[in-house]
Amino acid sequence: MKKFNRKFMFGAATAAHQVEGNNKNSDFWVLENIPGSLYKEKSLDAVDHYNRYKEDIKILADAGLNSYRFSLEWARIEPSKGNFDKNEIEHYRDMINFCHDNGVTPIVTLHHFSSPRWLISEGGWESETTVEYFGRYCKYVVSELGELMPYICTINEANMGVQIARIMKEYQAKMAKATKVQSANADVQVGINVDSQSSMEKYYRAAGEAFGIDPRKLHTFHDPRTEHGDLIIMKCHEKAREVIKEINPEIKVGLTMSLYDYQAQPGGEELVKKLWDEDFLHYLPYIQEDDFFGVQNYTRKVFGPNGKIEPDENTRLSEVGNEFYPLSLAGVIRFVAKHWKKSIIVTEHGIATSNDKDRVELIEEAIAGLYDCIEEGIDVIGYMHWSLLDNFEWQLGYTPKFGLIAVDRATQIRYPKESLTILGNMSNSRF
Question: What GO terms are given for molecular function (predicted)?
Fold first, then answer.
């Protein structure tokens, strides 16, 4: 077995809305419950991580993992504009302290897709005021918990809205040509459900009513992003970094991005170049002062002169339509490292499958590729598998299974999988 340095962080990741349950003040809770919702089911109690986090972190630690990436829920901490809930910040204080007590390094994400309901009514992720609001939230959290958080990811998958805008444009073009529409999940690394045009129009009308805004001004983090909105995200990140460093300069700050291993066959080079610029390169000026970069990867995409080359019928696919290709992670790390000379943390990597043997195979092959990257001199300091628990995969509901731990949601009993043991053994073999 390849051995990693003792300081290397092996862990797993979750997001608050996907695991905590009853996140009733968030925008996604609203969207799950409106008439004609595109969500296949409601999050409800999720996997009750809010109340069972000690059990879950203990399972992680007992398996040998030494780090845990999770998000704080803004909608819990600031349920109404300008009003912070002390009980909720104390909940997260207890959670972070429990990590430390069990030898687990917390990697805290301040925003992982879900937002307070009130923020969306105020203009959401296309509004300049969000920069101020996000900075205020970050200041409160770091003032309260900063000494407990060695690593902070400000925003999860800051480029997600750009990717969604791209696939929606492609989807509309396919609809206009009346061609077969492939699931959008193979084209964006988040659980979204692209339905018929009429269904989506009804959904947005109902959403507009729920938030009390013109549906054309609905801007959640999962909505297609304009160039202006893309800049808003970067301003939010810069503001958060500024606030964090003012309060505690010792905290390591970064953000995460959804990245594919883009591969070009002859004639596809220009397409791949354009995609890398959209998904990663144009953000570089905004992250130069960061301490680390979070890579999030699940698969590859191959392009020829006529565009994306779809996998053939014999290709192994995950439950969300991604090609099974473990070496995509190393491919992305190598590309990022050409342009980013500081630390890299793999903040998400995984597979949606009900067959855990696939997950084991993915982990073993991907980690071998990651090790090769380190041997080449790339400063990769951690690997967080997505996800610690089978969870609520946004609009796709609970069907896709990403977890190292299965959960019977009728009883909330946890069942660790072989993949957790395999990953834990890798962590235990560090020297």
Answer: hydrolase activity
- CA-to-CA separations, 32 to 12, 204, 311, in angstroms, rounded: 26, 12, 32
Q: In what order do the strands lie in the sheet with 300-304?
A: 261-264, 300-304, 307-308
Read off the tokens for 359: 């997950």
Q: For 350-371, how does the pLDDT look when each residue is reduced to its tens digit (9 = 90+)?
A: 999 999 999 999 999 999 999 9
The yes-or-no answer on residue 319 being catalytic is no
- Alpha carbons 118 and 159: distance in angstroms, whole number: 23
Q: How far apart are alpha carbons 405 and 402 in whole angstroms?
A: 9
308-323 in b/e form (b: 16+ CB < 10 A) is: beebeeeeeebbbebb
The CA dihedral of 431, 325, 352, 65, to the nearest 10 degrees, is 0
- 75-89 pLDDT tens trace: 999 999 999 999 999
CA-to-CA separations, 131 to 125, 126, 138, 146, 354, in angstroms, rounded: 9, 10, 11, 20, 40
**Which one, of 394, 417, 429, 410, lies nearest residue 192 by Cα?**
394
Going along the chain from its start, the domains and CATH numbers come out as 9-428 (3.20.20.80)
Catalytic option among 32, 157, 323, 361: 157
Q: Taking the chain, what is the end-to-end CA distance rounded to the nearest angstrom?
A: 12
Average pLDDT for the chain: 95
Beta bridge partners of 178: none
- Of 30, 123, 11, the residue nearest 384 (C-alpha): 11
3-state secondary structure 53-95: HHHHHHHHHHCCCCEEEEECCHHHHCCECCECCHHHHHHHHHH
Neighbours of 5 (CB within 10 A): 9
What per-residue confidence (pLDDT) applies to 178?
55
What is the mean pLDDT of the segment spanning 316-324?
A: 97
Hey, how many other C-beta atoms are within 10 angstroms of the C-beta on 377? Answer: 7
CA-closest candidate to residue 430, choices 2, 1, 66, 3: 3
pLDDT in tens, 234-291: 999 999 999 999 999 999 999 999 999 999 999 999 999 999 999 999 999 999 999 9
pLDDT per position as a tens digit, 106-143: 999 999 999 999 999 999 999 999 999 999 999 999 99
